[in-house]
């Protein structure tokens, strides 16, 4: 399955101050495959940035069901 992802921060409708924005979330995939990358767009899909994956990593040949991710970028 393709990687699926959810944003947990900022909350929908939250006011975002000018400056650096921190976006956090989680991602998961199916079939025992590890999530190796999460791309985030802050401008409706015109440009994409790679988020940092956080937490424990699975051993080679094994994968966790989900992974936390975080992206820090200038607010647009």
UniProtKB/TrEMBL annotation:
Cofactor(s) it depends on: Mo-molybdopterin
Keyword field contains Ion transport: no
GO molecular function: heme binding; molybdenum ion binding; molybdopterin cofactor binding; sulfite oxidase activity
Cellular component annotations (GO), alphabetically ordered: mitochondrion
Pfam families reported for this sequence: Mo-co_dimer
UniProt cross-references to InterPro entries, sorted A to Z: Ig_E-set, MoCF_OxRdtse_dimer, Mopterin_OxRdtase_euk
Swiss-Prot/TrEMBL GO biological process terms: sulfur compound metabolic process
Keywords (A to Z) from UniProt: Metal-binding, Molybdenum, Oxidoreductase
Residue stretches making up the Moybdenum cofactor oxidoreductase dimerisation domain: 1-74
Coiled-coil ranges from the UniProt annotation: none
Protein name: SUOX oxidase
Taxonomic classification: Eukaryota, Metazoa, Chordata, Craniata, Vertebrata
């Amino acid at each position: 399955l393709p990687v699926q992802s959810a944003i947990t921060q900022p909350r929908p409708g939250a006011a975002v101050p000018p400056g650096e924005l921190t976006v956090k979330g989680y991602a998961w995939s199916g079939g025992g495959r590890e999530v190796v990358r999460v791309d985030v767009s802050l401008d409706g899909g015109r440009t994409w940035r790679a988020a940092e994956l956080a937490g424990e990593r699975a051993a080679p040949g094994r994968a966790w069901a989900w992974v936390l991710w975080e992206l820090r970028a200038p607010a647009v």
